[in-house]
């Protein structure tokens, strides 16, 4: 997705949030049930399918109808290969890195949540749902992808993560799973051609710190996570991951 399209999505998110937080009061029919009806086509709360319950068994509520998958990776850890392997699984499509673009959306949502902290629970859920709508559309698979209309799990791989992004996923995309991809041999990682081209090359100690911070983010997310270091890439591990 191009940068201009991303900016448009962020702008749409902002406008939706402003309307939700500062618009006049709604009738009862436009509350949580109304939000559910707009998502399901029925006047009932959306329920997860059997597959959805397997994907996020502890998730309950209006925000659990859509499934997401994100790769939390460190640089030169084989994340592109991992992404390509995951994209071979029917019903899943992951985009490549977006240079931390989710952080902009997450930061905007965080500011609006603080501004509307006195809003009702129903309004807060509507705000979270509108954020999820934007991310879901942003991650729409390309039309050249085989069976792209049948993709039920959307996401991306990224090496730029922070607490704001992870908490956004926890709040707005609760039916999410993570894959934590890293390298056990940080010394070899520090000598990769990618880092050699940088003016300030991170050493093994710095990469070890980066890996530890990423691992801590994954743990604090509270989301189901699968750890897959580059050194463990193998057919059995990918099979276990696909299950």
From TrEMBL:
Coiled coil: none annotated. It comes from the Eukaryota. It comes from Symbiodinium necroappetens. Residues 36-47 have a biased composition (Polar residues). This is Protein-tyrosine sulfotransferase. Keywords: Membrane, Transmembrane, Transmembrane helix. The keyword Transmembrane applies. The chain crosses the membrane at residues 6-23. Residues 32-51 are annotated as: Disordered. InterPro entries: P-loop_NTPase.
